[in-house]
Amino acid sequence: MTERMPNRDAAVLNLPNVLEVRGLNVHIATDDGELCAVADAAFSVRDGETLALVGESGAGKSMTALAVMRLAQSAAIRVSGEILLRTGEGEPLNLLALNAPAIRAVRGRLASMVFQEPMTSLNPVLRVGDQIAEAIVAHEAIGWPAARARALDLLRLVGIADAPARSRTFPHELSGGMRQRVMIAIALACRPRLLIADEPTTALDVTVQAQVLALIRSLQKELGMAVLFITHDLGVVAQIADRVAVMYAGRIVEEAPVRDLFAAPRHPYTQGLLRSMPNAGRAARSHRIAPIPGSMPSLARLPLGCAFHPRCERAEPGRCDAGVPALEAIGDLRAVRCWRWREPALAAAENG
Ligand SMILES: Nc1ncnc2c1ncn2[C@@H]1O[C@H](COP(=O)(O)OP(=O)(O)OP(=O)(O)O)[C@@H](O)[C@H]1O
Ligand code: SF4
Ligand SMILES: [Mg+2]
Predict the structure, then answer these.
(1) pTM of the prediction?
(2) Which ligand lies nearest to the CA atom of residue 267 in the structure?
């Protein structure tokens, strides 16, 4: 695994926020009652920075991303909070307050999303070049011939050889890696300020995955985008992220610069994730590899108190199963949601 681990914490603090999320809640009405897929989420992504959102399946990562893009909208879903997108010098856009035409104008032009499964988000009956050109025509005063020419440039930008021939193919004629590149080309068509990538490499083999990650990094550098990168894979986090937010059962439980998170995880869940990964960092290497016992609870039946307590080896009866801990700031760049993070046992775990 190539560990990127950048060292730019101080510089990060001075960058302007492109995305700022405050008090985000996503409630879903289900047959089992209402569940809270995202609870009081707060995070920001700065100019040119990559924030990784990490956690096991069902943590609420995709729902967070969909809520930011205003795509988590159905009669059963209720989204509240503040989602601010800063795209220039003026006041940021409050995405939850925008009407339907205004949010459509934001999507694709200012903020784009690459979805987990490209086959479900590409149009199967439209040639890929036309799908990219369509994304450009939708947002810019530009004719189809010019948009098609830009589509070819984008295909080249995402590393697709023989762009003219590839642009005339249909999605099913391309490999998984090629389809993912096409999705990225569509997402980048209008040079967005914010790119949300939801597990964009999960379906790909390791070599293609490394190529796609390198591609996102280089395009981010070239275009100066803020990137929210969703994954359950800490190996991918090490390669792509500047900062990390760890999510468990709908809540962010730890946030830290990537280097600090790998070297000294504070939350028992993060420590467990690292111990379950081969080669994921200093804290992991100093322990034998051991999966976290149990599994994430159903969001419809969350345990009382800290939702991690049934799996947590540090859980303290009467405290951890009684109240939900707040996300506590540790300095400017770190935060942790655990009643016991200050206690020596957890500090010892940090240092391996
Ligand atoms: N339309 C829906 N109706 C009911 N529950 C839903 C719906 N969409 C998501 N959920 C629930 O919300 C929770 C969060 O789902 P989400 O897709 O955000 O998880 P995730 O962290 O992205 O997981 P994965 O790693 O598997 O993609 C899950 O428990 C899921 O069952
Ligand atoms: S609050 Fe308690 S149960 Fe939750 S992570 Fe911390 S020690 Fe474990
Ligand atoms: Mg998901």
Answers:
(1) 0.91
(2) 2
